[in-house]
Specification:
Length: 417
């Protein structure tokens, strides 16, 4: 069915609801609360409102709907320090201090002022619980060296016979000076890989799981996932040099594999909240990503757990400011987010009403919003002057998400310095 542009605007006006604060999102949160996993997206990695709104949704899902943990697009070792802090087992004395443990660029993704209220709330929430405390974990694959170092540290502390395998793995990676691209080039073109060492290490951890579980169940989860990161990061950095599609898929499959381990740690019925960019949580099959052979967390979790058990919420903005960098590894800066391009998803939402609004996609209205349309995505590297060349992902929005939250004018996060 061909839908005219004017009809699209009318349909947005008919089915969207305005909101001013999280209390106005109760209907959306109630429906999301029925799922096993709620996937909360973001159109950028540096927008204040996305963090704040996700935090309020997260609190309600945990307190009112029994969700057990938050898992984010962040490194496992740094996020695990946050997890220890909110559960009362950290050496850090304040949230601000623990967030400064995020050393890998882009630090502002998690070391920002907007994260502090949520983590303080989680800490207070956990204080009165003797078990089943709410957790905070990282799903990403980048922390190769940090994860191996964490494994070595733990195996030394427990006087483990697997320490030798961990030392061999870290020794293998030492010549690359923690430079991922250097290792990737060597592995991809010279055949000088550390694959065998990390596989032996992970196999040893799994084989001796009963020994490690006797120490502490969550310590074992930490050991197990650091081992998984070591294996998958090695493959990721090798693939990154020669095959962008393969490396992307390694990363998102890793995130789902990690999510599965976290869920099993709590129990088979545990419910979790995932914070990641829209490009990860929105089903890739409803975008141009599918033609490129890309999979993502949104697609894989729907396939693995069933569509009825996943509730994906996309986020977007019409204009404002954002924290990003103009090249990889460069210092962050506040940048202008220009008005969304004409006839894109964000621009039509703005044209339908220049205010904050959300839409839940249902059997009644889904067909009105499944036409392919440009949908803005801003990463940690951004150039507002040329965003029309590559920052709009062709998407069938109502198939990509279960709901969408639009903040008409947004502001950059405040990094912790």
């Amino acid at each position: 069915m061909l839908i005219k542009a004017s009809d699209e605007i009318k349909n947005i006006q008919k089915y969207s609801k305005t909101f001013e604060n999280a209390g106005d999102l109760d209907n959306l949160i109630r429906d999301a609360g029925k799922a096993k996993y709620v996937l909360l997206g973001e159109a950028t990695h540096g927008t204040s409102e996305f963090y704040s709104i996700r935090a309020e949704i997260t609190k309600k899902l945990i307190e009112d709907y029994g969700f057990s943990f938050v898992a984010v697009e962040g490194d496992w070792p740094s996020c695990y320090e946050v997890n220890k802090y909110i559960k009362g087992g950290s050496e850090y004395s304040t949230v601000r201090e623990v967030l400064k443990d995020f050393h890998r660029w882009p630090t502002w993704m998690w070391a920002n002022e907007e994260m502090i209220p949520l983590l303080e709330w989680l800490t207070e929430y956990n204080q009165n619980k003797s078990s089943n405390k709410a957790g905070f974990y990282g799903l990403d694959v980048y922390s190769l060296w940090e994860s191996i170092e964490a494994i070595v540290s733990y195996l030394k502390e427990t006087d483990s016979p697997d320490l030798e395998k961990a030392l061999k793995a870290i020794e293998c990676f030492e010549p690359y000076n923690k430079r991922a691209e250097q290792y990737g080039m060597s592995a991809a073109f010279l055949g000088e890989s550390c694959r065998e060492e990390v596989l032996h290490l992970l196999q040893a951890i799994i084989s001796n799981s009963n020994r490690y579980k006797q120490d502490d169940a969550e310590n074992f989860l930490n050991l197990q996932i650091n081992g998984l990161v070591s294996k998958n990061a090695e493959a990721y950095y090798k693939a990154m040099i020669t095959d962008d599609v393969h490396s992307w898929n390694i990363r998102d499959r890793h995130m789902v594999e990690t999510l599965d381990l976290i869920g099993n740690f709590y129990n088979k019925d545990a419910k979790g909240i995932i914070w990641e960019h829209n490009t990860h949580i929105g089903d890739a099959r409803a975008t141009s990503m599918e033609k490129e052979g890309l999979e993502n967390v949104g697609q894989i979790t729907r396939e693995k757990y069933g569509k009825e058990n996943i509730y994906a919420i996309g986020f977007g903005t019409y204009s404002g400011t954002v924290i990003a960098a103009d090249r990889w590894g460069a210092p962050h800066k506040k940048m202008a987010v220009p008005n969304a391009q004409r006839n894109t998803w964000e621009e039509k939402l703005h044209r339908a009403g220049a205010f904050n609004q959300y839409i839940q996609f249902t059997e009644e209205n889904r067909h009105f919003f499944n036409k392919t349309i440009g949908h803005r995505a801003i990463g940690v590297v951004y150039d507002p002057e040329v965003e029309h060349y590559g920052n709009y992902v062709p998407s069938k929005v109502s198939e990509r998400y279960d709901a969408f939250i639009h903040v008409d004018e947004t502001h950059g996060v405040t990094p912790i310095l």
